[in-house]
Design goal:
mainly alpha; MetI-like fold; 13 helices; about 70% helix; elongated
């Protein structure tokens, strides 16, 4: 019995010793991250958007199908001519209905649509940014490690070809073939956004592979794969985080731009689609409460990714 208790005590101490350095590294990393107040602001903004994405019904005053004067479905009625002429309605706080950001021309609450659109923006931004990094970073590492060889030459010539691929015509062809869906929008953005990742990571790898610790790993018999992903990749992660944040922000803006041009999934809520609707209905200069909220929401999400990327670059910098 005493032996079993001694063994369990040793196991507990062993687990504690194993995790204490990792917890300490996380604590030091968080301390460095919070040194940049702009990074904390970006994280707070992104957390708010994440909460909107996870539980929009908790934060939105109505469902997306709510209509001014009529209320929530399944109430079925008709708006009177006077009510229709009052739409889009400016902000109202209970008389004749509750819509803090006003309504659009169909009577839907603008605040509700802004909150429900956060999920689509978060999904596209994170998915396109991660997909871009998953393609660009490994190719950049391989290209840089095998610099001045046929492998490097093949990757760089492929990058040159992709740089000549215009984004908008490519996306038009893609959606013409596969349809206008959120998945196709993500693929179209990612296919043209990984190039800068690849070029920058290649340049960093060309420098890092000449370091003494890489030479030591080669002498010790480490494989090329181990050297690339165990010894070199951790040192290019700082710049990779920066590009991940930039790609996510760029994807959010690109999706909104495409929606504004009519190249978006019209079955999904999006800030770009809200801007396209106000343009097509001719209320740009008449309904500021419909125009400004989606624009600010779009700007804040893109800014939050940039703020977080700036702070993460400092946290993951090996020189710190």
């Amino acid at each position: 019995m005493a032996t079993e208790q001694s063994d369990s005590g040793q196991d507990g101490r062993s687990i504690r010793r194993r995790w204490e350095p990792r917890i300490e590294r996380l604590r030091r990393g968080w301390d460095r991250y919070t040194e940049h107040k702009i990074g904390v602001v970006g994280l707070i903004i992104l957390i708010i958007y994440a909460l909107w994405s996870i539980a929009p019904g908790v934060f939105a005053p109505h469902s997306p199908d709510w209509v001014a004067y009529l209320g929530e479905p399944p109430i079925k009625s008709r708006l009177t001519g006077e009510q229709i002429r009052s739409l889009p309605h400016p902000p109202a706080f209970g008389d004749p209905f509750f819509a803090p950001f006003g309504t659009n021309s169909l009577g839907n609450g603008v605040l509700t649509l802004v909150i429900y659109s956060a999920q689509n923006a978060m999904y596209i931004g994170l998915a396109a940014g991660m997909l871009s990094s998953l393609v660009g970073v490994p190719l950049g590492l391989i290209s840089g490690f095998y610099g001045d060889t046929w492998i490097d030459e093949a990757i760089q010539r492929f990058v040159d070809i992709m740089y000549g691929l215009p984004f908008l015509p490519f996306l038009i062809v893609l959606v013409a073939i596969r349809g206008i869906t959120t998945t196709n929008i993500i693929i179209g953005i990612a296919v043209t956004s990984w190039l800068n990742n690849c070029i920058t990571v290649r340049g960093e790898t060309l420098s890092l592979k000449e370091r003494s610790y890489v030479e030591s790993a080669k002498v010790a018999g480490a494989s090329d794969t181990r050297i690339i992903f165990r010894h070199i990749m951790p040192n290019v992660l700082p710049i990779s985080f920066v590009f991940l944040a930039q790609d996510a922000a760029g994807a959010v803006i690109a999706q909104a731009s495409l929606a504004y041009l009519g190249l978006a999934d019209f079955t999904a809520n999006s800030w770009g689609l809200m801007l396209e609707n106000i343009k097509s209905t001719g209320y740009v200069f008449k309904a500021w409460w419909w125009l400004i909220p989606p624009g600010i929401a779009l700007m804040l999400m893109a800014a939050s990714f940039y703020f977080i990327g700036f702070s993460m670059e400092d946290v993951t910098n090996p020189q710190r």
